[in-house]
Design brief:
about 425 residues, Tyrosyl-Transfer RNA Synthetase, mainly alpha, Rossmann fold, globular, binds tryptophan, 16 helices, three-stranded antiparallel β-sheet, 8 strands
Length: about 425
């Protein structure tokens, strides 16, 4: 059976918490042990620089995240485990993609748009406090993924758009320079729990409601003591529905344990006792990992060596690929074999307007110009006919059809660069 290559990055901007463990580390480590998969896991420290300008925090987080994944059973002999900044080919590929991706695509990236919307709402300059790194975030991520020809990218829902953009970059590059890249797919883990935090909202650094994965026993107990509950007295039946305490327990317990815990709720267990049970259940799973974590944290040099060995494995693929790509785009030695320049016109370039279906079940269309650059991207339609009608209108009426569409599709999702759309429509075969 052919192996499937999984790849995912973890931004080195904080200390791993129980939500990261349940939602990402535990399922990823399990998945990496399967026999027909190849896994690439890396510390996205270039991405971390976008939002963190405290060098000590970047370094500390890199160490903590690496130690956490290793302590939780990631086997560096079986997976390729590396640090993004040890792979200089990644920023080089980022530049190549920057030159084939339309700027309008990045204007529509969620994270950038959210920053712009916030500024606009506050009456500030739209780009106030937005660094170019934030704008380029999806391009760097595309390079991370396509560099290693990953098939599947396990990510949270908020990252789906980035995977779509990675596909666009790969498709544009392939169209222009030959088939070099596999187009990746997002994998959304619907069956792993998103863990509630201390206040009942999703456990997240940005809500400051987390329980550090490797808090000491004492600290863990104390934090669990602080999980919000209602004010029902001991003896009063308690609802499991909407109970953060219950949901966290469930993420650690098996079915029988969960059923017993639900029964205790119905029978009116005191909140203090329920918290004690939760604490013991989590600690049972985490304690052995915590010991490994402490041992690893005491030997940062060992982790450094593991990451460098991982980088060597990753570069064994990245370096030759980059050599091929440099040649493909024309960054070539001049010594011998300089080719005659063939003009674009002589290549009889054609644009493409295609309709396709995505994993979300919706129907989309997009227009790539003759260079393979995406110039128009629709939002999702519920049926193929709706998408097809708009394609027909574009073919028949040209760019003027866009005006009619703006009312029906999300205007923001339609390329605003009408000149580019008009040119590409003129190049359709
Ligand atoms: N953007 C991802 C996150 O915030 C981290 C990341 C960077 C990533 N590069 C990646 C994830 C490549 C998957 C693949 O979660």
């Amino acid at each position: 059976m052919a192996t499937t290559r999984f790849l995912t990055g973890i931004t080195t901007s904080g200390t791993p918490h129980l939500g990261n463990y349940v939602g990402s580390i535990r399922p990823s480590v399990r998945a990496s042990l399967a026999s027909n998969v190849e896994s690439f896991y890396f510390l996205a420290d270039y991405h971390a620089l976008i939002k963190i300008d405290e060098p000590a925090r970047i370094q500390r987080s890199t160490l903590e995240i690496a130690a956490s994944w290793l302590a939780c059973g990631l086997d560096p002999a079986k997976v390729v485990f590396y640090r993004q900044s040890d792979i200089p080919e990644i920023p080089e590929l980022t530049w190549f993609f920057s030159c084939v991706l339309g700027k309008g695509v990045l204007n529509r990236a969620h994270a950038y748009k959210a920053a712009v919307d916030k500024n606009t709402a506050a009456g500030n300059d739209p780009d106030a406090d937005v660094n170019v790194g934030l704008f380029m975030y999806p391009v760097l991520m595309g390079a991370d993924i396509l560099m290693f020809n990953a098939h599947k990218v396990p990510v949270g829902r908020d990252q789906i758009q980035h995977i779509e953009m990675a596909r666009d970059m790969g498709a544009s590059f392939n169209h222009l320079y030959g088939e070099h890249f596999v187009l990746p797919e997002a994998v959304i883990e619907d069956n792993v729990a998103t863990l509630p935090g201390l206040d009942g909202r999703k456990m997240s650094k940005s809500y400051d409601n987390t329980i550090p994965l490797f808090a000491s026993r004492e600290q863990l107990k104390k934090l669990i003591g602080g999980i919000v509950t209602d004010s029902k007295a001991p003896g009063e039946p308690k609802s499991t529905e909407g109970s953060a305490l219950f949901q966290i327990y469930q993420a650690f317990a098996d079915e029988a344990e969960t059923a017993a815990f639900a029964k205790a709720f119905a029978e009116g267990i005191a909140w203090g006792d329920a918290k004690q049970m939760l604490f013991e259940r989590i600690d049972r799973e985490i304690a052995p990992l915590r010991d490994k974590y402490q041992a690893l944290m005491a030997e940062p040099q060992r982790i450094e060596e593991i990451l460098l060995a991982g980088a060597a494995k990753a570069r064994a693929q990245a370096t030759p690929l980059m050599r091929t790509l440099r040649h493909a785009v024309g960054l070539r030695p001049l010594g011998a074999g300089v080719q005659e320049a063939v003009t674009k016109a002589a290549k009889a370039a054609t644009a493409t307007l295609k309709q396709y279906r995505e994993k979300d079940g919706k129907f989309y269309f997009k227009l790539l110009n003759a260079e393979g650059v995406l110039v128009l991207q629709s939002t999702g339609f519920d049926n193929p006919k709706a998408a097809g009608q708009r394609i027909a209108a574009l073919r028949a009426e040209g760019v003027s059809a866009l005006a009619g569409m703006a009312a029906q599709v999300d205007v923001a999702a339609v390329a605003v660069n009408e000149a580019a759309v008009a040119e590409a429509l003129g190049q359709l075969g």
